Every structure is written in C-alpha cells, then in structure tokens.
Amino acid sequence: MASALRLSSTTLRASSLYSSAPVRSAAFNGFRAYSTGKTQSLKETFAAKIPGEIEKIKKLKKEYGSKVVGEVTLDQVYGGARGIKSLVWEGSVLDSEEGIRFRGKTIPECQQVLPKAPGGSEPLPEGLFWLLLTGEVPSEQQVRDLSAEWAARSDVPKYVEELIDRCPNDLHPMAQLSIAVSALERESAFAKAYERGIPKSQYWEHTFEDSMDLIAKLPSIAARIYRNVYKDGKVAPVQKDKDYGFNLANQLGFADNKDFVELMRLYLTIHSDHEGGNVSAHTTHLVGSALSSAYLSLAAGLNGLAGPLHGLANQEVLRWLQKMKATIGNDLSDEAIKDYLWSTLKAGQVVPGYGHAVLRKTDPRYVSQREFAQKHLPDDPMFKLVSQVYKIAPGVLTEHGKTKNPYPNVDAHSGVLLQYYGLTEQNYYTVLFGVSRALGVLPQLIIDRAVGAPIERPKSFSTEAYAKLVGAKF
C-alpha cells in the first residue's frame, strides 16, 4: 500500500471552503486527490489505515475463526433473517437500548465533536463521512477541504441531465434518482479499470473515486428532479466555496432560510447510516460484493430504500398526521389523541413512525430532530401534534400489546420539519433520505474493496429441507 501514498505536485485551481487559499490537487496513482498540503487528505488517511485493518481481520479469523458468535432459529429464518449475526459493517452499530453509534459515537457526541459551518450549530455531513470511512474525527480544515473537493467534482454529465429532464413528472422521484445514478455507470473509474485488468489491491482506489464523484453529484441530481417535478426546472449552480448541506438546500431553492440549511446538515448526518442489515445498506453491500461499481450498487440500495417498509415510511407518517389533524382539528387533548390512535389500530393499521426492527427505546435520531424543532419551531401546530402523539402513543401501543417497541423512530419526525420550511412535496422526501444514505453505505463499499471482502452467498433451504433439518413431520 505504500505506493498508494506517493503524491505529485500537480496544481488544481479551486477555492477552499470558507477560505481564499487555493486547494492543490495531486496525482494519486493516476487519480485526483485534493489537499491543502498542510493537512492529510481523506484518501491519504484511509490508505494509511488499510494494512493495519487487513492484518486485524486476518488475525481475528486465524485465532477465532471457529468461534460461534450466535445461533439461528427457524423463526429468524422465516422472519426475514431478523437478528441473525452475519454481516460486517464498520461504520455504525445499532444497540436496541441506546440506539445508533457512528464509529462508537452517539448522535449527541457527533453533534458535539464533528466540525460545523461558521456560525452553524449542526455537524457537517462531510465530517460524518470522514468518520465513517476512517474511524477518526476530522479537523475543521480537513472537512473544509473535503467540502471543496466534493464541490469541484459536482458537475453532472449532460446526458444524465437530459435523462432526468425527459422523465415524466408523474414518475416517482425515487425512480428518477435510481435511473440517474445507474446512468452514471458510464463514468465509473472502477468498471473501466476492472475491464483493463487491475490487481485486487487497487480495487478500493477506483471505488473511492467513484464514491467521491457520486456523492458530489447527488445534490445536483436530486435538486434537478425536485425542480423539474415541482417547480420551474431551473437549478442553481453549485457554490464551490460552500458546504454540502448548503449546496443541497440552495439547489432545492431554500437556502434563504439559514435554519433550513442547518436542518439539511442535521438531516444528511443522522439519516446516513443505520448499521448494515437494513434494506438499503444490505442491498448496496450485496450488489457491491459482486464487484458492481459504486453507481450500480447504490442504485440497487436506492430501489430498496424506495419501499414503503423502509425509506418511503417518512412520507406515510406525515400523511397520517395530516389526516389526524383534519379529523381532530385543534383538539390536541390526551383523550382526542388516544381515541385517534385506537381508531387507527382497530382499523387493522399500524401507527406509522412507531416501532423498529431493532430499537426498543426512542430513536436517538427522533430525539435530535425533536430538539431541533423545540429550538426552531416550538409553536408550529404540526410539531405540537407530533409532541402529543409522542406523549400518548407509547402507552396505547403497550396496551395494544402487538408492538415490541412502542416508541418513535426517525420517520416519525422528519416530514414535519420539512413541511414547516415549505418543502411540502411528500413524494420527494425519500430522495433526501437517499442522498443521505449514500454517505453511509459508500464508505463500507470502499472498506470492503480495501480489505478484500468476498462475494456474499448465504445458504438457502426449501421449507421441506428445513422441516427435515429440525425433525418436523407433516
């Protein structure tokens, strides 16, 4: 890996985030690499860690490879592999009681230690991406350099813009996002290098380049879809001296409201990663294990995210809340909320936004959004409704007895925040989730290529074979 650290002195003309100092580019085994020359770049930081990580995995497998780490029950097999310990995911671990930790850090800890924009209070998603990939908290300068690098890579090919423009407006925004990301396969450094023939030790470098380019282009792609479907089709250019969250807010058309910009920074950070077993993360990993490019792997993950049992749930929550508001009006009494909750349950429906496959407490991502609302929109009627549901729903769901976790998840709050600032188009919400999720799943794809993770191929049985395995007779 030492050869991966050799740099040349090629110079790129670009503006450093929040600074007039130039950002210098270096040739990194034939790739672009952006650096101030004073701080270690993301690619350098990650490259330096690879040998140690490979040795750690080799030692773990050699000394403990035969150790049993769990058992599988037939209920788990027929229950969607729920809880089966079978995936490696470095970026985050989800604990049923305390919630998500990003590289060992809770959401409040990330909010405290990750760099922020000048005058801002929420962490920049660039910092979380760095943390997920390397396990290290980046310096403020490193995050500024990464913001500048993404801005420099952000130009979307003309054919992709035209492809988005030709999509019918009634095609779901998530389908348009998946189409656009898939079309970027034409740009894949990894696919081209693999076709030429490269050693496995270089897989991660090409995957890194694809991932950086893809992440950089996502705000412009997402904004183009939004502006085409809901507005005038005009998309503001990326401001090369601004951060990722600002540019997404600006291209959507909401940057005039500094609180919305802060919301985007928070939203992109907390929606990025939720360990590896959820549909979008697992799908990206699974497709990537076949050595598909970052573009095709993420497109597959986005298609999973678009399902109503996954990312699409956030728009379903808002619709349910709006229907409740239309029914009970301004009566936010405990009794009115309780009656509506029971009417939902007795109709055979679930309370959207409540319950989680793993969590058994209130989702910390919900809490972070609630704290944002308490700070910025405490008197909003919809936030007051959400707060009342939060107060009453756990008791009702516990009494109902069919929900293992009666507490809210992240989807229970995000839609209310977005609609408050004027982004009311619910069908679009999952696109924002998709942009954020790329920040969480692509670091693991890079790591997989760096450590030589194999293709994923679990064993399956028929129902008859399982019956024989457990000694059942019909």
TrEMBL record:
One of its GO terms (biological process) is tricarboxylic acid cycle. The keyword Kinase does not apply. It comes from the Eukaryota. GO terms for molecular function: 2-methylcitrate synthase activity; citrate synthase activity. GO terms for cellular component: mitochondrial matrix. Belongs to the citrate synthase family. This is Citrate synthase. It comes from Trichodelitschia bisporula. The lineage of its organism: Eukaryota, Fungi, Dikarya, Ascomycota, Pezizomycotina.
